[in-house]
Amino acid sequence: MGWAIALHGGAGDIPFSLSSERKAPREEALRQCLNLGVEALKANGPALDVVELVGWLLELGVVAAGVVMSSAREGGGGNVMGQLRKVGAVFWPLKSSAGASSAPSFGPGAERPGWVARGQTTPGHALGRESALPCTNRWPHHGSDSGGGDASGDGSGLPPSSLVVVRELENNRYFNAGIGSVLTSNGTVEMEACIMDGKTKKCGAVSGLSTVVNAISLARLVMDKTPHIYLAFDGAEVFAREQGVETVDAGHFITQENIERLKQAKEANRVQIDYTQPIPKESTTPNGDSQLGTVGCVAVDTQGNLATATSTGGLVNKMLGRIGDTPIIGAGTYANGLCAVSATGKGEAIMQATVARDVAALMEYKGLSLKDAAKYVIEECTPRGTAGLVAVSGSGEITMPFNTTGMFRACATEDGHSEIAIWTSD
Amino acid sequence: MGGWALAVHGGAGVDPNLPEERQEEAKRLLTRCLEMGVAALRSKSLSAVDVVELVVRELESDPLFNSGRGSALTAKGTVEMEASIMDGPKRRCGAVSGVSTVKNPISLARLVMDKSPHSYLAFGGAEEFARQQGVEVVDNDYFITEDNLQMLKLAKEANKIVFDYRIPIIGLETCGASAGAEIRDTTSPLQMNGLPISVYAPETVGCVVVDSEGRCAAGTSTGGLMNKMSGRIGDSPLIGAGTYACNICSVSCTGEGEAIIRGTLARDVAAVMEYKGLKLQEAVDWVVNNRLDGGQAGMIAVSSEGEVAYGFNSNAMFRGSATEDGFMEVGIWEST
Predict the structure, then answer these.
(1) Of A207, A322, A331, which has the smallest distance from its Cβ to B240's Cβ?
(2) A80: which of A71, B221, B235, B296 fits an S-S bond (Cβ 3.0–4.6 Å)?
(3) Assembly and interactions (chain B) (predicted)?
(4) Residues of A marked as catalytic
């Protein structure tokens, strides 16, 4: 037993020749997202909040880098910090009621230090007041900040580790160069995401988002605040505005790189999986391997609760309105009392094979271990080159199999195991 | 064993006071659809997936059930239909959501499967694809019936979203896995949210077929929930939830969409056959009893060996089935 966390940044035909300039920042992003997730789990954060947090950070770095870009252009980190605080309010220890007033999504427990979950007002869900832990001394690196003030000392109310991530993102040309969501054949962005809680099997999903900064958090709101599981396109955008989540102009997600990439895909007249090499020639886009459209995170917390989250921009040159496996419960995303799974790869293949549910079903109905179940699904149920997944079990096991060339992935467990990898041999 | 078989459904959960003539009308429609499928299967002119499409088209075109013409209305008073189809042998699948002008969503789902590189298209993109493919489109008004306008008005007055079997949701903020139980704890189906019992309950439709070569296929089509939020996607278009087909069986589900999604209901029928070795009817019963967490739903299924099965934990399900050996049955209530 014990907590465990695994995350991925997409599986696919990642060339072994990937240069270190491209590899290093990506590994660094995985490492920092992993570290944040680990800290959250160590502080007894609930798995559901942790996967939302890590998914959010991965989106920030990978799917929604446009936000970082725009903020940087508008004069530094202030906006980014504001944005992080808005969503981070769900996760970060709060020190004063002043913080609460500046972030309307805070629950009534926000005035005291501790984990504050969005939707705390909802009875029987997420974090009750009793489970909101004072965590000033639980966060590593927390100094003796006075007056319940702010650990990072910049008024953000955030623990220092999160600042590291954001500052890295801001200062990192690689990220700032715009790893935006990939574009549809119309040159627009349509993002989708899904989140699921293992114990209650509650889940939320969104598709067809074009202006919402954090798709995963909107999926969480669909789960918490609507009678439905799944909202899409205009209806999801309307819901986002009702809920007051951060939105930007759709153009923010569209970068020169992904426009160039769409052009190539169109010339090649094919739908390109988000993570593949640029076609036909790598030299035409220096960041070719960077088209990681899918990110995901699975976690089991100290209480044994499981959760999963997946988010994606989809395929380059996908048809308008295309929905992939990511938002579909049982395909790209699934959690129950036994395990939590997030899959990535060719959406159509993952959907047909109900990949995420089948890992759980093999454990449930055939008594397989997490590792064997995931191995069976990746080796026997999906064609070569189409799928990868990360999964954790209730007992803290982790597995991260894939049948593609590589999968950006990272994991850590309470007993000290930690790993960041791309291909099989590293 | 062997031989062809098919089953159809027109939704789970039925007004207990549904007038006799409405019941007869539903049974006639189900019988007509079965006969249509039987004729196609006897002639061996069509594969399982073709028969599924044929039969679901018929169900969509008739305003009786909640799909195509006669679909439930969104809160905005519009129709947003969804459908999916899956062909067992290669597990090919196609799905559409948010379709507002396509006369037969099941055929658009089929085209997504056959003619697009994707499995699932939605809203504007699905509509655009429909036009590229030249499928029959009609004005949104075509789908809107007087009965459903009345239903929407009543649903709005009650300020509730009405599931397709017309039991109001109580307590939207606790609409998790336990929502189903609360609905039944606090509301008798007889109350029917103050809706006149003379108003017919529209339902989701579905069809499962195994042909004489043992190929299985499934299709499901719906207008969704009365007074649903625009953009809401239910179980019907989701592979593994409302619809699933593989080498051993095919399944179409209906009922509380959210419970069906959480339970990955259709896939789980196949999974317990595949991984636990259950027979078709055992699998259906097991899934209905163990995977719904208090939600109400029903399903029809066929196996590659020519078996046919159904199950539901709602008060009723419009359904019919037929097999090669001459068996044919149409029913609504628990025992017919």
Answers:
(1) A331
(2) A71
(3) Heterotetramer of two alpha and two beta chains arranged as a dimer of alpha/beta heterodimers.
(4) 294
